[in-house]
């Protein structure tokens, strides 16, 4: 017992506990995603979209990328139409490009009056009964929504993403773009990676896939490597997305 | 056998019943064994259904009957009651603010960022992360992180320098009350048992002089949160995400040729006087330490230790 304690103390002295930060130099990949919904539209930052960075070359990740490509495209509109939700709810989600009802406040006009979304109105009535206050009922309205209406589409996409990413041999990093379409992958070692959005991004009448190879070289470490991503070709664009037309709902 | 009995007797005698610990094995039954969700009279003290009081006596008496009826002032009563004795019902606020915390909170920022995030709103409701309250009606970090009121003696921190964190279930239960896991009755979904620790009055902060509402007349600091907190949407797992800000987020303005040289100037001051305290961003506690290598990198200089400066 005494020997074990002595050994443990010695180990702590030799390998001091650190705060978890690695001392080896790492790099930062700054992605900027700029898109056009159609040729006449101006370029804009693609906000609030998640991108993934997988270690390895495109060739090494070929099987996974093929699986991504083979995935059927299910649009938000089609998902909710199939679910039988009201057009008002589909429009409400579309207004904010929302994947779930959590992405913006449900306001009073959405639960009562001529602009009310039927699903929200029903949930609001149940919440009024349950919580006894209109203020709480409105703020907590999502607690009385059907789970599929609430965030079924988001969960569906998350299931697809996690199933696909399980095929990656190494841990996959992910970040979300800010309102300008910028995001940062930090703590990267040197190597080759594949930047992907895994599930297609709806952009006007098309769905866009990005699967591009990125190299972080020794010289990129301790710096911020800019990387421009778009659905339009340009001399500065390093990763051009592949666009597919959105399918009609079944 | 006698020795075992003796040890058992001594152990029992040493238990301090005035201290309640969730770490005690027998206190690790399902939370609802003791805590009722919501508390029956929640409407009297809360705007929303919540756990607002201590468990009923029954939760304790089932095992602790001997301690309940021990003497005129049983120590066990002082876990919840301000005065110990059978005739006084007054209790500490729930949870007792002076007690050490026994749970940490697990909160996957990336997941929440995913579901609350949305695209542009009209310009008048643009997503300024630290905008005044009347503009904070979009779903983003400000749902949970409002302004943090600080007192003047907090290590030289500036007013409006920090953001608050949720201190009750108000910002959780509005989605997680039922059906959306972890729900209100699944305490363990968010609360993880930990070694007891003191509640920190201030969030851990290296640059105490930074003001979220600041940035000069143009309020240049009023940006989207992720413009500086670049790691907060990053995920490899749901744990361990920190709101850390790399120095490059600051030096884009504060150490740029032709603009300002705030970092380089202070590093130069250390060259002249190794006990110089960096005060532009830091309080005296942090400003007296060796600057990290990242600061020297920004100033395009090799890192130095104060002790090596003559």
Comma- or semicolon-separated keywords:
heterodimer, A: 250 residues, alpha+beta, five-stranded mixed sheet, four-stranded antiparallel sheet, 7 helices, 12 strands, 31% helix, disordered N terminus, B: 310 residues, mainly alpha, two-stranded antiparallel ribbon, two-stranded antiparallel sheet, 22% helix, elongated
What is the succession of H and E elements of chain B?
Answer: HHEHHEHEEHHH
The run of helices and strands of chain A is: HEEEHHHHHHEEEEEEEEE
Q: Helix segment count of chain A?
A: 7
Termini Cα gap of chain B = 69 Å
Strand content of chain A: 15-25%
User: What is the radius of gyration of chain A?
Assistant: 23 Å
Q: Structural class of the helix and strand makeup of chain B?
A: mainly alpha
Distance between the ends of chain A: 69 Å
The description of the largest β-sheet of chain A is: 5 strands, mixed
Main beta sheet strand tally, sense and closure of chain B:
2 strands, antiparallel
Number of helices of chain B: 8
Radius of gyration of chain B (CA) equals 25 Å
Please give a quick description of this structure:
Chain A is an alpha+beta fold and about 250 residues long. Chain A is built from seven helices and twelve strands.
Could you give the topology of this structure?
The complex is a heterodimer of chains A (250) and B (310).
Chain A: H1 2-14, E1 27-35, E2 44-45, E3 50-55, H2 62-70, H3 76-83, H4 87-95, H5 118-131, H6 134-139, H7 147-165, E4 173-176, E5 182-188, E6 191-196, E7 201-203, E8 206-209, E9 211-216, E10 224-230, E11 239-240, E12 242-245
Parallel strand pairs in A: 1-10, 10-11
Antiparallel strand pairs in A: 1-2, 1-5, 3-4, 3-6, 6-9, 7-8, 8-12
Chain B: H1 2-14, H2 57-68, E1 101-105, H3 109-116, H4 170-176, E2 191-197, H5 247-254, E3 255-256, E4 260-261, H6 262-272, H7 284-287, H8 293-298
